[in-house]
Amino acid sequence: MSALRDAAMTAKAWPFEEARRLLKRYEKAPPEKGYVLFETGYGPSGLPHIGTFGEVLRTTMIRRAFEVVSDIPTKLICFSDDLDGMRKVPGNVPNREKLEEYLQMPLTSVPDPFGTHESFGDHNNEMLKRFLDTFGFDYDFYSARTFYKSGQFDEILRRCAERYDDLMAIMLKSLREERRETYSIFLPIHPETGRVLYVPMKHVDAKEATVTFDDDTGREWTLPVTGGNVKLQWKPDFGARWAALGVDFEMYGKEHATNEKIYDAICRKLGAQPPNHFSYELFLDDQGQKISKSSGNGISIDEWLSYAATESLSYFMYQKPKTAKRLFFDVIPKAVDEYHQQLRAYPDQDPKAQAANPVFHIHNGDVPESTMVVPFAMLLNLASVSGAEDKEALWGFIRRYAPEATPETHAQLDEAAGFAVRYFKDFVAPERVFRAPSDLERAALEDLKTRLGDWTGGLDAEELQSMVFAVGKEHGFEPLRDWFKALYEVLLGASQGPRFGGFIALYGVDETVALIEKGLAGELG
Q1: Are the C-beta atoms of 472 and 484 separated by less than 8 Å?
Q2: How far apart are CA 200 and CA 179, in angstroms?
Q3: Average pLDDT over the chain, rounded to whole?
Q4: Is 411 buried (19+), middle (13-18) or exposed (0-12) by CB count in 10 A?
Q5: Cα distance between residue 2 and residue 226, in whole Å
Q6: Residue 437 DSSP class
Q7: For residues 259 and 253, what is the distance between their CA atoms, to the nearest angstrom?
């Protein structure tokens, strides 16, 4: 552990960099509450999506990195703002028309359109917990409804009433002039209709901790700020929640970055130290648009897990969190193969290199062995040329290539073979475009076919790759990648592909000869 801690104290991996920054917060003394608190927020206005998962995963990576560099206990809270009013009906839920009459009602007062839970907020909260539990996250779930109504938030809400003018001054600086006239940090929940009201306050009584306002009919009400009778606007809520819970770390997407000073100022005004922050870039869909819970674009967690193991998703989330990335189905194969490359490298690395390896953070230091003796991209190509309908068909080729491998001893490979067949059918097959070879390419393919027909070197992938390379050189391909591109486009129907020697070793020499003959005859399209 000492060697790992030493490595972690200088590691450039972003979880360790953030962990060391957080450690400085308590270099003089540990927190009075006895632990360092990490928090992630969730707005259950739509179904939990993959970005939500990424936020919890990345926070957990920093939490685990902190546990390497420090002996201070830690805790993670996943906080759902389920008392927020439903501003619009999400576009990806059933029975949308039935929800129109519940606009501005707290999400935990909106009927569940799926008919499985007491409310829409409860449904989405359970979806979130199910997703997080699937990945084995260690967290405590907090509901805003419970937080406000149980009295746990009452002390800070009273303080908000006492310091109302100061808090309003912070907020009003950030608002347009027309909004300043009606803005209040408090949002009353109407005692009769149950709706969240966006109305100005006529009076805030600091001593009694009450607010007085007119509803949209002109009727005057006075309500206590405690007990769930009001909630805070979302920006003040951020800072007030930090103050109430003693949050030490929270990350959020870059859309929050411009509000960071506001959140911090609210927290300080309420007598607490703001947490450390980490702002990450957003995920984009296949059209380059931000993925959104309400519109349902991009990939869901369940969709990713239909085509690849959970660790590949974690690997994708680890990579470059401060860079905007396309998050669509076509990123899956690369994530799978790069994850296994890192797994294979890990055992031979020194502690410093291991601390910088993504798989250390994915597996919290307990890194498994990779049994993927065939890359995922190669499995996809194999599914393509063999017409495999299920993973058993792929295993016929795999056993010849790697006789020691079985579904029982190579569970990762067995699972990946099933994923590859499914991914090929759904995404690769519909997009394949075969073309006829040029005269130069035809001559080279004939040569390759002849050499393979005479081949006596067995299934050594490197020797086969050298032979394929030599054919391209001797036929004058310049640059040489044009030769390999021709192999992919003529034989596989794609512009990119695997190391072709490895593909021949896996698919078989005789089978590759037959494939070339079909390509030359124009029978693959």
Answers
A1: yes
A2: 10
A3: 92
A4: exposed
A5: 48
A6: P
A7: 11
> Mean pLDDT, to the nearest integer, of 500-507?
94
Q: Name the token pair of 484.
A: 């390999």
Measured CA to CA, the distance from residue 214 to residue 190 in angstroms comes to 10
Helix H, strand E, coil C: the string for 51-72 is HHHHHHHHHHHHHHHHHHHCCC
Helix H or strand E segment including 516:
helix 509-520
Pairing assessment for the beta strands 230-232 and 186-188 based on DSSP bridges: antiparallel
Nearest CA among 27, 66, 33 for reference residue 249? 66
How confident is the model at residue 341, as a pLDDT?
97
Q: What percent of the chain is modeled with pLDDT above 90?
A: 77
Q: What H or E segment, with its residue span, contains residue 326?
A: strand 325-326
The pLDDT tens digits for 146-169 are 999 999 999 999 999 999 999 999
* Cα radius of gyration (the chain): 29
Stated pTM of the model? 0.89
Highest mean pLDDT: which of 261-265, 280-284, 425-429? 261-265
Above 70 in pLDDT, residue 351? yes
What pLDDT is attached to residue 291?
A: 67
Q: Is 33 strand, coil or helix?
A: coil
Those residues with Cβ within 8 angstroms of residue 344's Cβ, 6 or more apart along the chain or in another chain: 370
Amino acid at 126: E
- Count CB-CB contacts under 10 A for residue 438: 11
> What are the pLDDT digits (tens) for 93-141?
888 888 889 899 999 999 999 999 999 999 989 988 887 888 889 999 9
From CA 240, how far away is CA 397, in angstroms rounded?
60
pLDDT, residue 257, reads 84
- Residue in this structure with the two tokens 């509000």, named with its chain if needed: 259
How many whole angstroms separate alpha carbon 397 and alpha carbon 388? 11
Tokens coding 62: 């920093």
Buried b (16+ CB within 10 A) or exposed e, 112-134: bbeeebebbbbbbbbbbbebbee
| pLDDT for res 1 | 58
In the numeric block, the tokens 């608190």 are attached to 37
Q: Tell me which residue of 182, 176, 168 sits closest to 214, measured CA to CA.
A: 182
Tokens encoding 262: 């506001």
Largest Cα span, the chain: 95
Tens of pLDDT, residues 290-299: 766 555 566 7
Residue 229 to residue 245: CA distance in whole angstroms: 20
Burial 499-513 (b: 16+ CB within 10 A, else e): bbbbbbbbbbbeebb
Burial (Cβ within 10 Å: 0-12, 13-18, ≥19) of residue 1: exposed
Give how far Cα 76 sits from Cα of 32, 99, 109, Å: 17, 33, 27
Beta bridge partners of 77: 39, 140
